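Lab notebook: predicted structure, single chain.

Context: the supervisor wants predicted structures on file for every construct in the current expression panel, including those that have not yet been purified. This is the next one on the list. No modifications to the sequence; it matches the entry in the shared construct table.
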Amino acid sequence: MSKILVNRSKWLVVCLTLIPLWLALSAGVAVWWSLRDDDQQERERNQRFALEMSEQRISEDLRKLGEMVGERHTGEQSSSKNLTRAAAMVEGVLGPSNTGYLIERIVAPMEWPIIRVSLPAKQANAPHLWVLTPYDSPRDQSTALADSALAAAIAAAQTMAKDQAPCHIHFLFVPHGNEVEAPVRQTMERIQSLMKSPSAAFIIGPMGTSPQLLALSPNAASSSTQALGDLGSHQWLASNLENLATTYRSMGIPALWVTSRREGVDNNTIEASHIAITAGKLVEWLRRCARLEAVK
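Prediction complete. Output recorded below exactly as produced.
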């Protein structure tokens, strides 16, 4: 009898030991499976957003900007010539013979034009959305971040060229935005004087450093941003582009600075595959914002 009780006690000890271990193991497996599933869903989402983009074309644009255009600002003569080359590249890629947009050159404070391509809405009185991207680069710095923003904006404009938008969407490529010494505010005032006030202005910052699309702006997250990745308001000092958004908001124009640049990531490593993802998310975001503005 005592032997039976001893055996039962041993089994009880074994059970009391194994059950918590089994529960802990099960919980660990469940957490791992959940994280794996989340990662898989994120990869599938990113792949879906990149489908409309041409990674090869983005890679080629980055190569041209880095190797054929290079540093571009109002400083040295060679850099100012490169600013002219950048403008010519934007016009050539998006113009009638390639993407099919009608190119509008708007006179700016200096010799370089503001380039506008537009998606007209069906109704003339529909709201206006502006998508602004500087085509200059900062002085004495790598052009990689500026190149990534410009390549992403060009890719977005190419993808949306055939859209039947419920809002007027204007892609504006501005000559002054990255260079601190340039007449940025005068350029913005010039745009404002020639165009109808927008419902929102999206200022495109560096892309391609992370496959997430981030927005540095108050009240950035909304129903238009759901399922596009890690979006939100991030307290992080940015380049002159953040000042651009602040300048616009001081004029009473709701402006959002959009970028995939983020803390804790090597922001000097630009990948065409990441630009394809973030540009795809940008396109989806613009389409959602246009629909939301149209029904207000």
